[in-house]
Protein 1
Amino acid sequence: MGHVDESFEAARQITQKFARSFYFASKALDPETRNACYAVYAFCRSADDAVDLLAERNETAQEALRPYFTYISALQGDPKDKNEALPKWWEAWAATVRRYDIPIVYFEELLKGLAMDQGRVRIADGQELRLYCYRVASVVGMMLTHIFVRNPSAELLQYAEAMGRAMQLTNILRDVAEDWERDRIYLPQSELKAFGVDEESIASRRMTKALRGYLRAKVFEARGYYREAERGIRELPRGRIRLAVWIMRYVYGGILDVIEEREYDIFSSRAYVSFPRKIVLAFQAFRAERMSDL
């Protein structure tokens, strides 16, 4: 196994370990496309982990993310940065970015978004949440779109942005309790106030009527973004690529189904889609793929 092959394998292992739903959906892709997606994910996940370890390392977000700007500089050919220690996945990532002409600005936006996770987090309003979702999720969807489609149209990238927003909002709804443990609330303060939800409800893990009503509204909002994204999925190349994205849409949307089935109780346990349920959702995705051209 050559260095590049070892690098792609390192990226695959990271994806398998930390992105179970994405890894499940990726099996529908051909090996080459699948490996490219793993390489992109490895960069994103590694940077995210660096920010999550800020407290342990007594670092600022700027310090934690500095190596990732170095990795970008090394990709662009800065000789001094090539002398820095590079992670195992770097060669695979660099080869993927070059081969598919993925704009570097997406990775820079991602790092800006991850810097927003430093310390205590409170999102002021819907506009700030939209920016956060764009930076930490939508740009990832746009990176993958460049892998799926050569020179994607602006319209297709907008649909990828909607898909990322839907998935990140799903993550936020799923992880409310977990995020609180880190003193992070990604649900906009202005919206919580409008629904009569205070932080004490979240801190004490109390499912109040007001909180349940708010979560119902946010699930409805997330479903709207998924519906918007579906228009873009239908424009992807027919076959494996489109099927993989349909699977991702259905599996991630399945988390919202679980939240609804629990009557929006996001405190008793973390909402997740079991493997048997993923199989059922994959069949639904296959049917959606077959219907896409009708």
Note: The first strand starts at residue 121 and ends at 122.
Protein 2
Amino acid sequence: MTIQIGVLGNADSWYLADLARAAEERGATIRRVDYRTLTANVGHDARRFSAGEVDLLALDAVIVRTMPPGSLEQVVFRMDILSRLEAEGVAIVNSPRAIEHAVDKYLATAKLASAGLPVPETSVCESAEQAMFELERLGGDVVVKPVFGAEGRGIVRVSDPYIGLRVFRTLERVDAVLYLQRFIDHPGYDLRVLVLDDQPLGAMRRYATNGFRTNVACQGRAVAVEPTDEEVRLAIEATRVIGARIAGIDLLRDAEGRTSVIEVNGVPGWQAFQRATGIDVAGRLIDRIMPKD
């Protein structure tokens, strides 16, 4: 019987194509799942979860490759369906709880800090006035990030109070949560470690070529490197704290050599990582989630 793996991803996604290639090489089949077609039936004899013609309960696993924007109701419904599928025995990678923890930067940072992992000093608030106070408290030089966001989008460095007030008031007007982290003076690169089932797949150093952001999506340059034992430890522990099976852990070393966990990406991309390291991430992932005989 052919193994069927659902992928919640865009039809034109490079990752969908890469997963389909890896699955075919292993005798498995990828079924794309569209969030907009998710349907749940509840009743006396009904226990159905579908997405168009795809019977979700017939899938052996579901890989979450995207979480598109939506209303609060839509996002909660999507996570509810993933949770119910998981309860029915379908392997979800990553689990709904892990995705919820990772996608929320405040929650992820708080959980990492509570577990004793080093993180940048962070302040989160809702008003521009409070953000101005936090800007000063954090040394007058901060990185402002969207609480929900990835690939470096929407991140801005603020070190001028006048610019800061304009940024904070703009965010306040659109009902954004203001997430500020003390800027870490670093040598112009960070480290992304990709972890799968408590094992490091590899690491790449990402060099900033456009401002301070090192994300490859922001024109950063990636080079494969061998992580230190300490970097591997931090990456694995951070992944465990979030509860993810696969995660991209971003580490940043300051001028004094201290390493901080900057972010845990619960839906990590691997296109740049694969180019830099030559590691077949899709193949490794499919190997890990395929049912064992």
Note: The radius of gyration is 20 Å.
Protein 3
Amino acid sequence: MIRAFILTLLLLAASAHAEAPLPVTGPFEQGGLLFGEAPPGSQVFLDGQSVPLSPQGNFLLAFDRDAEPAADIQIIYPDGSRLHRVVAIAPRRFKTQRINGLPQSKVVPPEAAWDRIIAERDQLIALRAQSRPEADYLGGFAWPAKGRISGVYGSQRILNGEPRQPHYGIDIAVPTGTPVLAPADGIVVLAHPDLYFAGKTLVIDHGQGLKSSMLHLSEILVPEGTRVTKGQPIAKVGATGRVTGAHLDWRVSWFDRWVDPAQLVPPQ
């Protein structure tokens, strides 16, 4: 009798979760970032991969620029019941942007530069793979600088006539020395003086694999390990690395997936 009663409760709970909507908010589209919440102790999976939860049950899901048309999301609750959805991911049409006047060595690097480029790439890949359990991003996001948008997320780049990787951030064209503010709470995990392509670069860890990268800076104001709050001055805009003029390139990543920063902030 007791076993039958427990089985009935589990079946009822599973049925309730099966009918429930996904506990997430955000755009189900390429470049989208979703914010979710589940009871502490739950397990969340995206396309079969485990997703970290904060101690309070907050979690993130993200779809990169070239995400497939569907994603598999599963939540296993502490009582063993499950919520399982296969969701459609809307495609986006991305612009093509042609940029001329770059130093040719930044478009087609000389052979002598490749060891450096590969080492820096591997360092950044390892950094993006790191995750902290705290959900510092819950305080929300704000523009790190405001000005003319000279480059958008996802655009296909043609540099000096050479097709290159898509652009994964937002370019904000403002003068050298313009303050850069922390877009959300977090911890500075990289303050690099000179990456080959990105120049002076600062990376903030917002928790659970979510990070902001600030590229092409003229000055970095906070060292690695500093805890920063949204709106705090952290750097100054510059024109270092592969650029044709002063601007801030703000990028947001969730592990190895780049998401659209414009979806996290209101219009300027």
Note: The longest strand covers residues 210-220.
Protein 4
Amino acid sequence: MNRRACAKRRHFEYWNHLNCPMAKEILTLSVPEDLKDQRLDQAVSKLCPQHSRARIQGWIRAGRVTVDGRLLRQRERLHGGEEIRIEAEYEEVQEGYGPEPLPLNVVFADAHILVLDKPAGLVVHPGAGNRRGTLLNALLHHYPELDLVPRAGIVQRLDKDTSGLMVIARTPESHTRLVERLQQREITREYQAVVAGVLTAGGTVDAPLGRHPVQRTRMAVRDSGKAAVTHYRVLRRYRAHTHIQCRLETGRTHQIRVHMAHLRHPLVGDPVYGGRPRYPKGVTPALRELLQSFPRQALHASRLALAHPVSNRPMAWESPLPVDMQRLLAALEEDLASAHGC
């Protein structure tokens, strides 16, 4: 199916009155034959994956979606070939989450995108128990216009305790294009990680991921899960650990963490998938303490490459390892040198 059908014909209208910020996006979609017999809400969700199913169903209930000029219920089936028109209205899209004056490390900014270097410990999007102090709150403070962009422009997420590079869309159009390119695997995301155990060589993990059948906050390799592919290569081997680089082909929740644990090489410091720390033979007390107390999963989004959503110009950014991971690698290097009598 050509997912670009979602962007076939569209225009935007913007208002920014004093008390009523609002944006309306007019989408005109052609329903392909492979969506024949799909429910209206399912078809629109597949054509416009940048919008959540809940948002689309809300537009249908509000009468903002017509099929060949007619209003249909969300459960009604399509025949293929219809024209769908959506008046996608955005108002208070951040659901009451307010701006907060939190610091941001901006690596790049223009009128269309931002690239940020997120520190470990920062939650990306508000949720249960994290309604304030998030990256989204900070974005709304520094860039108030993001209140008119879905998810305040957030295209990809990093786990709270994963550091590194993220791209943010500054306009609805940029958001749509970046989401499409992410789903089409046209955005390169590379990570550095420190894992337990000694990997002999790089490779690829192609294993579907889904919710753990019992522990619902965890992910697990499951035959019924969504496709997930991680490529990894060895950067440096230590006595009981390996420094690796990972490249995501897909972007599932906790993907690198689960895939490496699946290989029985979990990330150092991972509180969910890491298991018991591993130590080299004759480990020093200092290294043992560092491995035991490492405060997060040793994972950093070190490189981001994409085509600009408006100019299509290739762009790339790199982020150095944060201090905590540098200290960890230095300690492992010192342990290796001591073992070799250097």
Note: The longest strand covers residues 21-30.
